[in-house]
């Protein structure tokens, strides 16, 4: 089960309670679309509140009514667009699925979208409210999806049931994020496979 922090619950509750009047829905979607356009053009530095307002035609006051900061707007916009960008594999083997998912996520981080991900992650460190938006709208869906792969592997008797799914995800995918942020090593397919193999050696059921 994915751990939920208090701020994440607040964001989720706020999202559920947002007015669904057509005009409000259209304005929010215009903001999200404009933000994603700006992110695509120039990354997080381009997605200022002034630029978002000008591009969307929505006033800055309205933007701030729904989001606490530009990073929060960008986190939701990017998260909604990219949360399902990496399709889940289904090879018939739980362990093979996990290996393939590590490879696919590595390729995502190595793409232009990975640069935006890194910018949002870094900005969220100093903006706790934005971090909640990032977890709710981007990370939560990703981690739920990987949880599906873990459950498959458990059902097949391939992974150690004593290891928590949250711990397993951090072990498998944490090294990719570290490489993305630090730049100490490339995000290549070959190295992604090596990371997956090294992690799974400790996660799989020991063979007699």
Characterization of this structure:
The protein has helices at about 5-15, 20-40, 50-55, 60-65, 70-80, 95-110, 110-125, 130-155, 165-180, 190-205. With about 210 residues, the protein is an all-alpha fold. It has a domain at about 80-205: Tetracycline Repressor, domain 2. Helix 5 packs parallel to helix 8 and helix 6 packs antiparallel against helix 10 (about 190-205). The two termini are about 30 Å apart.
In short:
The chain has 208 residues and is mainly alpha-helical. Helices cover 73% and strands 0% of the residues. The chain has helices at 6-17, 22-42, 49-56, 60-66, 70-82, 94-109, 112-125, 128-155, 165-182, 189-203.
Question: Keyphrases for this structure?
Answer:
mainly alpha; Tetracycline Repressor, domain 2; 208 residues
Topology:
Layout: H1 6-17, H2 22-42, H3 49-56, H4 60-66, H5 70-82, H6 94-109, H7 112-125, H8 128-155, H9 165-182, H10 189-203
Helix pairs in contact: 1-8, 2-3, 2-5, 5-7, 5-8, 6-8, 6-9, 6-10, 7-8, 8-9, 9-10
Distance between the termini: 30 Å
Structural class: mainly alpha
Characterize the quaternary organization of these chains: single chain
User: What is the CATH superfamily label of the domain at 82-203?
Assistant: Tetracycline Repressor, domain 2
Write down the overall mean pLDDT: 88
CATH topology (level 3) name of the domain at 82-203: Tetracycline Repressor, domain 2
SS strand fraction: under 5%
What order do the helices and strands follow? HHHHHHHHHH
Helix content: over 70%
C-alpha-based Rg, rounded: 19 Å
Largest sheet: none
- List how many beta strands DSSP finds: 0
**What general form does the structure show?**
elongated
Low-pLDDT residue intervals, each spanning 5 or more residues: none
The CATH C-level class name of the domain at 82-203 = Mainly Alpha
> What is the CATH architecture assignment of the domain at 82-203?
Orthogonal Bundle
Q: Treating each run of at least 4 consecutive H or I residues as one helix, how many helices?
A: 10
